[in-house]
Amino acid sequence: MPNSNSSGQALSDKFAGLMEKANAYAQRVLALPNDSFEKTLAVAFALCLVGAVLVSGSAVILKPLQVSNKAADEKTNILEVVGMLDEKTNVEEAFKKFEAKIVDLETGEYATGFDPATFDQRKAAKDPALGVEIPSDKDLAKIGRKSKYAKVYLVKEDGKVKAVILPVNGYGLWSTMYGFMALEGDGQTVIGLNLFDQAETPGLGGEVVNPKWKAIWKGKKVYKEASEAGQEFSKKHHTEVGEPVLTLVKGSVDPSKPGAQHQVDGLAGATLTSNGVNNLVKYWLGSEGFAPYLAKLRSQRG
Ligand SMILES: Cc1cc2nc3c(=O)[nH]c(=O)nc-3n(C[C@H](O)[C@H](O)[C@H](O)COP(=O)(O)O)c2cc1C
Fold it and tell me: Among 207, 208, 252, 271, which is best to mutate for testing ligand 1, by the most ligand atoms less than 8 A from CB?
C-alpha cells in the first residue's frame, strides 16, 4: 500500500513532468513566427491565465482587509448618526460604549443563539432560514426580503438606554438606500438618520447625505404622543403598537404649525427619493419593523 511519502513523491514527479511538457510547448510556440495563428492564440491564453491568477489572488489576499474596512466603516457610520464623530474621534475607543444586540422583529424581544459580532443582517435577509419574503402589499420600502432578526446597537448611561441605533433600508429612485436611524432611549425622539450607502443622483436624491439635511432630523418625533392624538387615540396605541407619523413634506416645514415635530423638509428636486425615505421610515418604524421592539424598550423604561 503506498504511504503518504510515496504518494507525495508521485505527485511531485507528475507536476515536474507537466512543467517540463509546458516548458517544451512554450519553447516550440515561441519559435513560431509572430503572425502564426497558434502563437497568437497561445500568447492570448497565457495572458488571460496570468490576469486571472493575479485578479483572484488579489481578491483572496485582500479579503481580510475588506472585511476589517467594512467593520470600521460601519462603526464610523454609527458614531456619525448619534453625533459622536469628529476628526479627533478615536473610532475604536468611542465604539466601546456601543452594545450590539440581535432583535427578533416579530416579538420585539432580544434573540439568543446569535453572535452579534458576526451577524450579518444583509446576508440573513437572503438566507431562506433567517429571511422572509415581504408580501407586496406590505412592502412599503420596496426591499423584497428582510431578515427576521435585526442587529441594533445600544448606548447606555447609568444602566439606562440613552440611544438605540436601528438599521434601515428602502428603495429610492435608482437604488436601495441603506443606513441607520438613531433614536433616544424613549424610542420616539430622533437623534439622526444616516443613509450612508445609496446610489441616488449626486445633488438631487444624493442630498440624503448632505449634513445640513441630516441635521434637521434631530429632535423630530416618530409617533404621536397621547396628548396630541385626541379621543380616537389611546396611550396604548403609542406604547404598544405605534404607527409612525414622521413624514417628509414638499418644501420646508413651518415650525409654527401643529405637527411640525413630525415633519422633515423633503429634498428639493428629488421627490421620488424623498418618497423612498418616507417609506423606509414608515416601514422600519412600523409594526413590520421595529415598532414591537421600541414598544418593549419604552415599557422597560417605566
Ligand atoms: C439625470 C436625472 C437624475 C435624477 N435623479 C433623481 C434622484 O436621484 N432622485 C429623485 O427623486 N429625482 C431625480 N430626478 C428627477 C426625477 O426624475 C423627478 O423629476 C423628480 O423626482 C421630481 O421631483 P420634484 O417634484 O421635486 O421636482 C432625476 C432626473 C434626472 C433627469
Answer: 271
